[in-house]
Amino acid sequence: MSPELGTGLAIQASQIVPAGCTDPLDAEPALQLFPTFHEETFLSMSEIVNALNGIIWSPALIYLCLGTGLYFSLRTRFMQVRGLGEMIRLMFSNKASAAGVSSFQALAMSLSGRVGTGNIAGVATAITFGGPGAVFWMWMVAFLGASTAYVESTLAQIYKEKDDNGQYRGGPAYYIEKCMGQKWYAWIFAVATVLATGLLLPGVQANSIASGLANAWGVDSAVSAAVMVLLLGFIVFGGVKRIALFAEIVVPFMALAYILVALVIVLLNIDQVPGMIALIFKSAFGLEAAFGSVLGMAVQWGVKRGVYSNEAGQGTGPHPAAAAEVDHPAEQGYVQAFSVYIDTGRSA
User: Fold this and answer.
1) What pLDDT, in 10s, does the model give residues 206-257?
2) How far is CA 199 from the centre of its chain?
3) d(CA 333, CA 90)
4) Which of 95, 132, 174, 347 is most buried, judged by most C-beta within 10 A?
5) 79 contacts 308 by C-beta, under 8 angstroms
6) Other Cβ atoms closer than 10 A to 167
7) What is the DSSP string of 167-207?
8) Are 84 and 171 in contact (CB under 8 A)?
9) Which of the 8 DSSP states describes residue 313?
10) How many CA atoms lie within 13 A of 129 on its CB side?
11) Hey, how many other C-beta atoms are within 10 angstroms of the C-beta on 294?
12) How many CA atoms lie less than 13 Å away from 291 in the CB half-sphere?
């Protein structure tokens, strides 16, 4: 806003607001005629976020996610199908050591970050904007994404290192620098990961918890935030070992409870299941008249919510995978590929 324009608005406002007005409420109708600085800032930030979202989640990237999964599936000869039994066997075969966690603990840590609002609100959002066919594309991105998770987690195992405490550390930033030789890009990924996993992704979960407690029992958001910070601080500052131990105990109960609730809902509506499945497949390919016009939206929202839910190819899964103690790097790759099935199976 220019100084001249600001002065002009101030003069006009002084003419509209009654003389001697001391109560802000008396002047509120007049002041509402002019946008405030905060409203202008908010609109600008909203436009910036929407513009970035349009670039990041452009159709090109959406189909690239599917194409990458298909490429890795072909190169691995669809290991997500051939190796299903091996995934389950390896999940419990490797034990923890002084340097690393067990395969199951690494799996539990990765699932602990995937179980959340993305499994419920994410699916509802996909269906709202993409129609029932979005569920099919969530299944598809999970099936193809399992091979992506296998590759990225195996690479994390190959290029992992030991820190000053003698414990394993690794992830995409490590193999981007060592394998691709692009240290600058590794730094960009590392900074983006810290911001995303340290602030943005947990913020969505924390906000959902605080909102749920406030709506259900009237718990003040500040109280919810304080309790969450104390509990998470006790776990996180204990290091990867304490995180793994906590996840190993809690995550199986979370998953079982979620699956049991979903099964009860399905059984209570068992007569609707055949029609539901038929509607999902018809609308996924535009065969259902009511959803034929949103075929592209079904693909886009299915892939978006699928990646957000199962995190295959997102770069977060390789971090716990690198911390596992295994005999061969591919073993943890198999285990992490199975985590995509677990997460998307619960969501859909």
Assistant:
1) 887 888 889 989 999 899 999 999 998 998 888 888 999 999 999 888 888 8
2) 12
3) 10
4) 347
5) no
6) 17
7) -EE--HHHHHHHTS--HHHHHHHHHHHHHIIIIIHHHHHHH
8) no
9) T
10) 14
11) 20
12) 24
Distant-in-sequence contacts of 160-163, Cβ < 8 A, 24+ apart: 160/322, 160/323, 162/99
Contact between 311 and 113 (Cβ < 8 Å): yes
Spell out the residues 6+ positions from residue 161 whose beta carbon is closer than 8 angstroms to its own. Answer: 168, 169, 170, 174
Q: Which residues contact 35 (CB under 8 A, 6 or more apart)?
A: none
323: nearest Cα among 92, 79, 104: 104
Report the distance separating Cα 189 and Cα 204, nearest Å: 21
In order of 14, 24, 26, 277, 291, the CA distances from 29 in angstroms are 13, 10, 7, 54, 45
pLDDT digits (tens, 9 = 90+) for 280-308: 998 888 766 455 556 678 888 888 888 87
C-alpha span between 305 and 294 (Å, rounded): 16
The string of pLDDT tens digits covering residues 96-118 is: 898 899 999 999 998 887 776 65
Q: How many CA atoms lie within 13 A of 121 on its CB side?
A: 11
101 pairs with which residues across the strands? 324
**Contacts of residue 299, Cβ cutoff 8 Å, sequence gap at least 6:** 62, 130, 133, 134, 137
DSSP string, 13-43: HHHHSPTT---HHHHHHHHTTS--HHHHHHH
pTM for the whole thing? 0.80
The percentage of the chain sitting over the pLDDT mark of 70, rounded to a whole number, equals 81
The tokens describing 53, both together, are 């979202």
Pull the structure tokens for residue 219. 């718990």
Cβ atoms of residues 337 and 153 within 8 Å: yes
Beta bridge partner(s), residue 169: 161
